[in-house]
Amino acid sequence: QSVPQQKLLTWLSVLECVEVFAEMGTARVWGEMGRWTIIVIIQLAKALLRLLLLLWYKAGIQTSPPIVPLNREQQQPLHPQDMEDNSSGKDQTYVGKRSSRVVRSLQSTPSLQSRHWGSPQQREESQSRRAEEMNQPPTPLGLQETVAESIYITRPLLHLLSLGLWGQRSWKPWLLSAVLDISSLSLLSDLKDLNRRERAELRRRTILLLYYLLRSPFYDRYSEGRILFLLRLLADYVPGVGYVTRPLMDYLPAWQKIYFYNWG
Question: Can you list the positions of beta strands (E) in 200-249?
């Protein structure tokens, strides 16, 4: 990835990290009008950054989060003692004569800070496989797939526009958003030979379709009573589950009202 592309991904990651805080803080300070203003600004900025990555830098299917979090366990450097042992040429493993099992030799046992469970070969294979997955180039998109990804990127803006035209109680914004999400996934379903991150992203988008059960007006008219009834039933009749479901019942209405939690 080029430096400008990496900067765009960084800014996109920052926006996704602060969007909920910005919405809640603006609503507290400037009220409902300020809340919707910051929502439009953030969604517009995210769409512009994603379209730039898609059309200019050919970034392919964009994942969420844009930058993969660093796995510090995988990136953990060797302890100086371990480096000395490696440089001294000590055998790291011992192969059993009868069982053929590979075990770590006592002389090459690493320090406690860098110790891990498993043979050195397993760790090296895992690290090399993860490095290959991280360095895999994005799958080239044809015209159909580019249109599908563009639909997914612009869906939040079209949803906000439809909210402004028809209001939050109308079914039209909910239906428009659902049609756009399903259309994007349908057009992308023909893609083959996706890398691991891209397949995971498409699975994530498919699972997120369940959010339409929690989005207004469907939630207000159909889902709310049934979900709360199910949670209350579990809390009353399944021992121990109430410690999870009762706080969830209290939290769900507040979560549902925050735009970036259920529509972002």
Answer: none
